[in-house]
Amino acid sequence: ARKFTDKHEWISIENGIGTVGISNFAQEALGDVVYCSLPEIGTKLSKHDEFGALESVKAASELYSPLTGEVTEINAALADNPGLVNKSCYQDGWLIKMTV
Amino acid sequence: MVLQSSLKNCLQLSCILRTPKAGFRSTTSGGLIIQSTSNDVYQNLAVEDWIHDHMNLENRQVLFLWRNSPAVVIGRHCNLRLMRQKNIKLARRRSGGGTVYHDLGNINLTFFTTRKKYERMENLKLVVKALKALRPQLDVHVTDRYDILLDRQYKISGTAAKLGRATAYHHCTLLCNADKFVLSSVLKSPYKGIKSNATPSVPASVKNLFEEDPSLSCEMLLDAIAEEYATQHQIDHHITLINPADETVLPGINNKAKELQTWEWVYGKTPKFSVSACFNMVYKDSVLDVKVDLDVKHGRIEACNIALPEQWLPPALCSELVKSLTGSKFCPNETTTLATTLLRVCPQDDELHSRWNLLCDNMITLM
């Protein structure tokens, strides 16, 4: 099940690992994403911590952790293809995975 | 000192009053116009951070006016390597976008609102309206890339923005009388062979408003914009002067200014990039091909490869160099120090020393 924060990030939990991304509303508001700044694997995050930023043609927009945990994976595809966040925000445009 | 300058402005110009004010946070709701008394880019960027982090903008909006002594300011995700710095302050701001040159002939405007009310076009139209009220004959308009153009061709303003949890800010430059010679030389990007996903900086033809109309000054522009903002927000025509070093008005501000000056923020935030270069080194009467590959992440050399003609330098020494460079800062000073240290453990061999220095000098030109 996908859960949404009031800041339009979503988290989907399976076997103790949560996948985090932004909602369709958020990606539309952001405009075309040109760069994703994501944390290192192993970074410990508390709920509401800033964990990175998305830069779009509109602005640099911070990303906030929906839960407390540790980053286990980041979406490497976004380095060369940041537009995935716009095209497929719920699937291929996921941002990070973390323990919850 | 601050009171004098506010009186001076009153006498010189129009109906916009400037006063210093402690506790500006407690002003009435609606809107607030503040101006920095400092020309230090780090202090001024710190004020933006402070307002963004600490002010409640639910019932009011803020316009912040500031100017910096010469500095190059890059966006949050810009690649620093693509720039030439000539003893000019370098700052990385927290908003996105490309690279700009600031000096006292450029004015900076920051529009603070809640995230919901974030609206760049409206802000830029306000600036254009102010300019036209001041000088009706000026041909200025806003493009859909959020630039302001003069005479339909020259960029006089660039825009960037940051969206936070509850607040947002949009800031823009405005060229009044900046040094275009220095501007074009610091913003030139001479380096080829860089691969990176960093936010690109788009070069443009620029012009100063002063060139179009020599009767214009920065102070006049600031006043005109402040007046238009005050009119549109239905607030007093009043600018509050802010000293960015004053901890009593802005608690925690000096830490913010310090953070903006750390190597980790300015250089360490450079997105990952690779450099590949081939040098033709001329040594005595031969020409040597050298190939250097570097992967740089967070401002440090993650991986390094140097391909030299066999036996030109002792292989053990070369592999020591590669080992030392890996993990070190991508920075000419650091590389020079490493190279000098390694050379000290070598025998006093003039030939070796000159070859080594030639190689290292070339490596440093990459940085």
TrEMBL record, chain A:
Localisation: Mitochondrion
Keyword set includes Transit peptide: yes
Any one Gene Ontology BP term: glycine decarboxylation via glycine cleavage system
Chain positions with N6-lipoyllysine modification: K58
Keywords recorded for this protein, A-Z: Lipoyl, Mitochondrion, Transit peptide
Family: Belongs to the GcvH family.
Protein name, per record: Glycine cleavage system H protein
Source species taxonomy: Eukaryota, Metazoa, Chordata, Craniata, Vertebrata
Automatic annotation (TrEMBL), chain B:
Domain BPL/LPL catalytic span(s) in chain numbering: 57-237
A molecular function (GO) term: lipoyltransferase activity
Gene Ontology, cellular component aspect: mitochondrion
Role description: Lipoyl amidotransferase that catalyzes the transfer of lipoyl moieties from lipoyl-protein H of the glycine cleavage system (lipoyl-GCSH) to E2 subunits of the pyruvate dehydrogenase complex (PDCE2). Unable to catalyze the transfer of octanoyl from octanoyl-GCSH to PDCE2. In vitro, it is also able to catalyze the transfer of the lipoyl group from lipoyl-AMP to the specific lysine residue of lipoyl domains of lipoate-dependent enzymes but this reaction may not be physiologically relevant.
Signal peptide: none
One of the Pfam families matching this protein, by short name: LplA-B_cat
Compartment list: Mitochondrion
Family: Belongs to the LplA family.
Domain of life: Eukaryota
EC number, UniProt record: 2.3.1.200
Name used for this protein in its record: Lipoyl amidotransferase LIPT1, mitochondrial
GO-annotated biological processes: protein lipoylation
Keywords: Acyltransferase, Mitochondrion, Transferase, Transit peptide
Pathway: Protein modification; protein lipoylation via exogenous pathway; protein N(6)-(lipoyl)lysine from lipoate: step 2/2
Catalytic activity: (R)-lipoyl-5'-AMP + L-lysyl-[lipoyl-carrier protein] = N(6)-[(R)-lipoyl]-L-lysyl-[lipoyl-carrier protein] + AMP + 2 H(+); N(6)-[(R)-lipoyl]-L-lysyl-[glycine-cleavage complex H protein] + L-lysyl-[lipoyl-carrier protein] = L-lysyl-[glycine-cleavage complex H protein] + N(6)-[(R)-lipoyl]-L-lysyl-[lipoyl-carrier protein]
Keyword hit for RNA-binding: no
Organism name: Phoenicopterus ruber ruber
Entries under PANTHER family matching the protein: LIPOATE-PROTEIN LIGASE (PTHR12561), LIPOYLTRANSFERASE 1, MITOCHONDRIAL (PTHR12561:SF3)
Source species taxonomy: Eukaryota, Metazoa, Chordata, Craniata, Vertebrata
